[in-house]
Amino acid sequence: MARINVLSKHIAELIAAGEVVERPASVVKELMENSIDAGATTITLEIRNGGVTYIRITDNGCGICREDVPKAFLSHATSKVRDADDLNSIFTLGFRGEALASVAAVSRTEMLTKTVEEEMGTVYTIDGGVQTGYDAAGCPNGTTIVVRDLFYNTPARMKFLKRDVSEANAVADVVDKIALSHPEISIRFIREGKQTLITPGDGKLLSAIYSVFGRTFAESLLEVDYELDGIKVSGYVCKPVCSRPSRAMQYFFLNNRSIKSRSIMASMENAYKNTIMVGKFPSCVLNVYVRPETVDVNVHPAKTEVRFSDERKVSTAVYYAVKGALSEFDSAPQVDSAKMAKLTEKAKPDYAQFQMIEEDTPSSVRQTQDKAANTVSSAVYKNADSQKNFWNKMSSSQFKSDPSVSAPNHLNKGFTNADEPDLVSGFKSRTKPTQQSPTPAHRPAVQTADTDFKEKSYFDKKDTAAAEISTEAKEKKVIISEQKPAPRPLRLLGEAFKTYIICEYDNKVCLIDKHAAHERIIYNKIKKNAQDNVSSQVLLTPVTVTLNKNEYNTIIENLDVFSAAGYLVEDFGTGTVIVRECPMLISGDDIEDTIVEMALYLSENRTNIESEKIDRIHHTSACKAAIKAGYKNSTAEMKVLAEAVLYDDEVRYCPHGRPVLLELTKYELEKMFGRIQ
To answer: Are residues 165 and 63 in the same domain?
Structure first.
């Protein structure tokens, strides 16, 4: 039988450090909370190499008396709890007295501190839990703690750390939460020598939100201010139209402490019922204030989980607070004239959504179109058509390599200002032409020899070009007709619930889910374009996407995956990425949702191989671009979609595995009605 041994102080400290200090972000959280408890109004944080080699936190708090400095690094040494009754009324963020001892046990730590009453400050150094220096020093009021070489004496724990970028983003996420929970404190964050965040410290939560997440996110929020039975709820929630595909932008605080609470989250989301789409989630920055004796924060080592004495009362207060804010401040979205055209295009399916000419075109319009077409040569008409479909046909790589679009024509051909004709003098010397009788437009009746030669040469060339184009089109038509057999007749019967297309085909009644069908068609097209290296288009206006630090870190880690899927995603600063290119069939309005949804998927499936990740991006992109259930489609659009499904054997299931087509034969239908036995 194994004998029982009492662990040494050093080993016990390492075990305790493992509960509190898991990574650099844990160190930053504990030390910044100490600065807040010390009454600091300004806090500066600096990290290097993700916080693994260097962390510095400076505050202007009350400081530590010189004789108490060595005690602060002892386990369970704290100034915030004196007896058992104090545990029932904890107002401070820290209270266990484990942070400094745990940090010092796994790093080389230096503290420089001074109180207002002292003339000289104190410098104290401790390596691996062993004191190495203790002396007087000159310094300003407050405390500065420098943590170097984290986990230098525990290499087994060091190998579980992630890349420096990932660790730095985790630190940034902690800083964001502290900045949001304490807007009265000015927080400055220096990352690898660059300042990435500074909050004004004016006590306004909206100012802190603006500093952390930017203007776009701040403008999408509604203020919350409510109190019920001693429970106060304040902060901001997003407008229903600004909901997101994930819960990553939901921040909850209890008495200015960042927490995770399923009951508060569920109550907040219940207030949004019937106002946001299924699969969307609201964003929020909510702070709940309760009496300290009604909540237990000593449940988890990280103090992120809490237990309420009356959880239902807290959930009710949150629900009515959010519901009241939505009822009072949320209004119908205002659409200005500049965005009207864009919204119209969004409601009407674009190129990827089978945009076609209606079958019932008025005869007057058709005659006008035919007349206009006859007056334009075939060559000119072909050029106009190519310009119309420019963005649909030219990929980003072709656009970048085409000299005709990368620079003006006169620059490509060496054209200079000296070569320009003098149009002003030519206009002044022009004489009024003599009146002539009307003649056919295609051939002047009376011309000089030189003019007649020029006109004849031009029209001969034009007629020849038109004849060549016509002959080429006929040859192509013959080849296509030889390769593709004539399709069997299809008769469109109608549409059910603006979701399912009903048609008659090959003695069968077919029901087609138009969203699933269109999603599969787009998915196949995106996959084919990717194989042909024509997988992306340049966005005229790049799309910026604001993310929380975890989502941001996930996207940055998978930039090569997005590139392989046809997206050009770049780092646009801490917490923001910019999308400059996307697959050919994707609309710019769907990019933000695609990026946010993929960030959630990639964070939950980090071990998947790259091909699976790329395929999931194709799935998500096709789903966002496809026709939605409830869209009103024309007869021609439904017919073309039905033909695309019935004439292509590959379109039978959507990328998620749902069936696209259900068939009911004539025999089965007649048997159901009792016409046959």
So the answer is: yes
Q: Please indicate, yes or no, whether residues 561 and 654 belong to a single structural domain of this protein.
A: yes
Domain count for the chain: 3
> So what's the pLDDT on residue 349?
46
Q: 232 and 192, same structural domain?
A: no
* CATH code of the domain in which 144 resides: 3.30.565.10
Does residue 406 fall inside a structural domain? Answer: no
Buried b (16+ CB within 10 A) or exposed e, 339-374: eeeeeeeeeebeebbbeeeeeeeeeeeeeeeeeeee
Tell me how far apart the alpha carbons of residues 476 and 467 are, in angstroms, rounded to a whole number. Answer: 14
Note whether 443 and 463 are within 8 A (CB).
no
Q: Decide if pLDDT at 322 tops 90.
A: yes
What residue numbers bound the domain in which 644 lies? Answer: 494-663
Work out the burial of residue 583: count CB atoms within 10 Å of its CB; fewer than 13 is exposed, 13-18 middle, 19 or more buried. Answer: buried
Residue 158 CA: distances (Å) to CA of 108, 154, 556 = 15, 7, 23
What average pLDDT does the chain have? Answer: 76
Q: Note whether 512 and 661 are within 8 A (CB).
A: yes
How far is it between the farthest Cα atoms of the chain?
A: 124
Q: What pLDDT sits at residue 320?
A: 93
Is residue 75 situated within a structural domain?
yes
Do 175 and 254 fall into the same domain?
A: no
Amino acid found at 189:
F
In the numeric block, which tokens belong to residue 48? 């290097």
The answer to whether position 421 is within a domain reads no
Q: How far apart are CA 111 and CA 455, in angstroms?
A: 92
175 and 237 assigned to the same domain: no
Q: Are 603 and 642 members of one domain?
A: yes
Helix 610-625 to helix 591-604 angle, to the nearest 10 degrees?
150
DSSP string, 17-83: HHHH-SSHHHHHHHHHHHHHHTT-SEEEEEEEGGGTSEEEEEE-S----GGGHHHHTSTT--SS--S
Nearest to 178 by CA among 21, 31, 291, 292: 31
Q: How many CB atoms lie within 10 A of CB 259?
A: 20
CATH number at residue 624: 3.30.1370.100
pLDDT at res. 440: 44
Pairing of strands 508-513, 537-546: unpaired
Of residues 96 and 547, the one with the higher pLDDT is 547
Asked, for residue 480, whether it belongs to a domain, the answer is no
Of 198, 233, 253, which residue constitutes the final position of a domain? Answer: 198
Asked if 498 contacts 512 with a C-beta cutoff of 8 angstroms, the reply is no
In the block, residue with structure tokens 């269109």: 518
CA–CA distance, 553 with 574 (Å, rounded to integer): 9
pLDDT of residue 669: 82
**Amino acid identity, position 582:** C
